[in-house]
Amino acid sequence: MRSLLFLFALLFALCTHPFLGEAQGPIMQDVLDINNNTLQAGKDYYIRPVPNSVSTICRPPAPCVFGSGLALNSTTPNKACPLNVVEVRGTGQALTFTPTNPNTKDITTNSDLNIKFDVKSNCPESTVWRLVSDGSSGQRIVTSGGVIGNPGEGTVNNWFMIQKDDDDYNLYFCPRVCETCKPVCGNIGVFLDSNGNSLVGIVDKPYKVRFDPVSS
């Protein structure tokens, strides 16, 4: 009898506790668009900032920019390449999401993703997001020139994730594609640079967004 009880206790412990070395990361949930459909890898979406988000751009006395999206644009005075990710009025430009596993179709929270603008560019860099340090300000900004796939040390700055934020979502940089790397994690949001550009980069507070599917 005692042996039977011990066996049941052992089985219960194994079922309710992870094995040594098993990952215990954040819970992954399907990311939903504004129509409550799961985001699909390779499909086009607009990333739309949520009205009244703490990082919504305001330029007094002009009204705050609520009807906005994200796009690639040159932010230097001479309009040189590479193009940076900025907040613009309107829907912005369409983007696609690619997980680390190319066979995965559903996009989930708290998982590493490549983000790419599905547009043509006159610059030689790709339209894949990449986090870099701005040479003039030292601020970490999202620019172009990343690559799709090849998770590892050489591509660590190309990976972003989506986090659940109340009824909405936010974007976050904290890649887990390199076990030996120690990236400095941070919220992805919008801030004004010295030239008045609404740059996308690392900010202090989460920046709520929604995902608007592009009509076919």
UniProtKB/TrEMBL annotation:
Residues 1-23 form the signal peptide. Transmembrane segments: none annotated. Coiled coil: none annotated. SMART domains: STI. It comes from the Eukaryota. Keywords: Signal. InterPro entries: Kunitz_inhibitor_STI-like_sf, Prot_inh_Kunz-lg. Pfam families: Kunitz_legume. This is Miraculin-like.
